[in-house]
Amino acid sequence: MSDKATWRAVDELFEQKLVGDDSALAAALSESAKAGLPPIAVSATQGKQLYLTALSIGAKRILEVGTLGGCSTIWMARALSADGELVSLEIDAKHADVARANIAPANIARAKPVATVDVITGRAIETLPSLKGPFDLAFIDADKESNADYFAHALRLSRKGSVIIVDNVVRGGAVADPNGNSQVQAVWRLLDMIDKETRVSATAIQTVGAKGYDGFLTAVVL
Ligand code: SAH
Ligand code: DHB
Ligand code: MG
C-alpha cells in the first residue's frame, strides 16, 4: 500500500471529494497536452493547496516563476479579487502563448470580474529586476538551478507576512544525496541560503501523490 499506484488512487479520491470537477483546469490540461507541453503542472490537489494558501493570506498580488500552460496560474488567480494582480514569468514563448490561451477562458468561466493576469515572456532572471513589489505570495517553479536567485528576488519583492513557495525540492528523495545532480545541488544552495537568512522562517514537507514523491518548501517573511 505504498506504491505509486496507491499514491495516485489516494490523490484521485481527494480530487473527487475535495476538488471536484473542474472544466477550466481540465481544458487547460488537455490544451497543454495537445500543444506538446510536458505533463509537469501541479496536480489538482497541489493546485488547490496553492489556491487555499493565497486565499488564507488574502493575497492581492501574486508572483509566479515558471508558467508552463498556466495551471498553477489559474489556481492562484482564483484566490484574487478583481483588483488583484498575478504576474507569471515564462521563458518559452510557446508555453506563454498556450498559458494565455488557457487563462482567458478560465477567467470567462468565472462569470464575474477577475484579477489581471500577466504572463511575461523572457528569462525570469532578466524580468525579475524590473518588477515592483510587494507581492503577497510567490510560487517558484521554473528551472531548478536558479532557485536561490529566484528566492532572493522573491524576498526582495516581499513584505512582512509574504509567503514564498518553492516546488520540487524533494525529487524522489534525491535531495538527500550531497553528491546529487545539478538540480539537487541547487536545492542545497537554496537551503544554505535560507539557513543563513534571518528574514524568513521556512519548512519543507515531503509529499507523495499523482506526481510521485516530491515536496514544496514554504517560507514566510518575518
Ligand atoms: N507552474 C507550472 C509548471 C511550470 S514547469 C504549473 O504547475 O502549472 C516549469 C516552467 O518553467 C516551464 O514552462 C519552463 O519553460 C519554464 N522555465 C524554465 N526556465 C525558465 C527561465 N529561466 N525563466 C522563466 N521560465 C523558465
Ligand atoms: C517535474 C515536475 C515539476 O513540478 C517541475 O516543475 C519540473 C519537472 C518533473 O516531474 O520532471
Ligand atoms: Mg513544479
Distance between the termini: 40 Å
Unreliably modeled segments = none
- The side-by-side strand order for the widest beta sheet comes to 3-2-1-4-5-7-6
Cα-based radius of gyration, to the nearest Å: 17 Å
**Total beta-strand segments:** 7
Helix proportion range: 40-55%
Strand content: 15-25%
Give the topology string: H per helix, E per strand. HHHEHEHEHEHEHEE
**Shape type:** globular
Q: Give every kind of bound small molecule, once each.
A: S-adenosyl-L-homocysteine, 3,4-dihydroxybenzoic acid, magnesium ion
Number of helices in the DSSP assignment: 8
Q: Note the main sheet.
A: 7 strands, mixed
Output the structural class: alpha/beta
Q: Mean pLDDT, as a whole number?
A: 97
TL;DR of this structure?
This protein is α/β, with parallel strands linked by helices and 222 residues long. The protein is built from eight helices and seven strands.
